[in-house]
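re: ur question from the group chat, yeah i did fold both. here u go
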Amino acid sequence: DGKVNGMEPDFTQAQIKKALPCVSREEPETKDSKCGGGLFYKDKDIYFYTGRDYVEIGPAFKGRLSIPLMGAARNGLFRWLGNASIKDKNWDAYTTAYGVLILYFNKANRINKIQFSSQTAATIQLCE
């Protein structure tokens, strides 16, 4: 639903740390910050890029997803998400009610990374 424990991708670092205080690494939001700053929970495989207003979830994430996407087959996503608005060899982007959802696929065409944002596919700036 575009949230993590009720927190949206555009929440501040202070708001996120209040709800999830055990951060593994944090980077302040300054002009010199790589990727605009963020809070990173490596042990949970979830990363909040607060300067760019998006969240990334990796394959080791053990939390509950509102739609069971992690590990789902690429050819079975239509029933939940409809058609992708942008398709690439290794990822698909979906327009959602809250913004954009980007799903990455492994060689078996199963989801191995999820990114979501309150921004659109045209405006989001992902960290490389």
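okk and heres the other one u asked abt
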Amino acid sequence: MSALGPKGLAVLSIAGIAGLFLGILGWTQRDTGMVAPLITPSATPSAAATPSAAASPSPAASPSAAAGPALTSQPYASYAYQVWPGPLTADAKLAMSGFVLTVTRQATGITVNATQDGQQLTAASHFYSGGATVYVLDANLADDAGRVAHDETGDGLVVTNARGQVLS
């Protein structure tokens, strides 16, 4: 085995420090809800969005959503497709493959119920205080050919407030 030398040792030290820093950062943000959870694929695909604008009382069991960083500052922002409110773009329609999404406007926010291929993504009827926009995350639109998501591991859901901050 050859000696590393001072340059090799410096590179390994820097890589180790960077890894330690990223590990600590990830650990401190593990329960913030800022990143949509990865889900396991199932056998029953479905693709429907059912937005609702009716006002109704907010669910008592759902905690209020806390505002976080701007969606545009997140690493997943490039694959976030707005699906509520408003008309869907072609990419948003493709990203919705496998999702069933119901959004209900409340007096102080929105209630979101989302499933993907029959699996619940958020708590049933989760209330987002100050919620204004719903995005579906799809890291690979190419896997959604034929309106069926073949690999949902890069898919998820994000809700933002009127200022574009991610809500958890």
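fwiw on the second one: The helical segments are 5-28, 90-95. Residues 5-28 form the longest helix (24 residues). idk if thats what u expected
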